[in-house]
Amino acid sequence: MYAHTLLSMTVSNVRLSKAAEMDHHWVAKSWLSDIGLPQYSQAFQSQLVDGRVLNSLSRRDLERLLNITTQSHQTSLLLAIQLLQLLNFDKEVLEARRAQCEHKDQDPVVWTCHRVIKWIRDIDLKEYADSLHGRGVHGAVLALDPSFDADAMAKALGIPSHKHMLHRHMYEEMKALSIPARQTSVEQDCEVPGTGAPPQSPSAVSRYNEEIVSMRRRSGKSPLRFNSKIAIGRGLGYHGSCGSLPREARVQAVPRTKGSPMHTYKSVEITNV
């Protein structure tokens, strides 16, 4: 018990020490730009939101104090804060990891919104890439929210629901990116300096998880669906309006593992993109 308390105090001290180095100018200008929400820069600037304030923000604070009412933007900010907490607010670690994956499709959890847009262009969807500006889609959203799947990304990009093969392409590219970086795996990469131990779950992360569970129970929807009304299977274009095509026009899809969004579909039918 004493050792656990001592570790928690060490984690807290390290985090607050590093958070203090993130002044409100950096948060308002650099950090918000990196996560794709620069439109809130003035609000963060006027409220003097620095790293220490970020560490304590809740969804209610974002709405009441900063006038951020868009649910997906609130969730994007909370996930970005969660990443900072997992890295103990160490800017040098964050920037070093981002530099290592600037030209490699790896470590997506630390990707900025700009890096995500670059990836979208690299996978031949450049005509949709600019749709992500101001949407708050960054690496922590891709890696830390398991509900942000190919359907949610396609919706954020504005890919029409009838573009079935583009939805299929988006699904395959997100799968190829290999985003296993949920909270547990991220924590294993973010040890507390000098202790060799992962950081303890911060209160803001716990509040975020509780809020997400509560929201899903009330609405049954993901907070990052961007008001999507399309089910996963139909959004990916593997069923529905394609049933009238002749048998010879059908192409066998790659088998999906159990639990995959595509598990229940055995074939994909060719249509115009």
UniProtKB/TrEMBL annotation:
This is Kazrin. InterPro entries: Kazrin, SAM, SAM/pointed_sf. The gene is LOC106582811. Pfam families: SAM_1, SAM_2. It comes from the Eukaryota. PANTHER family: KAZRIN ISOFORM X1, KAZRIN-RELATED. Residues 31-87 form the SAM domain.
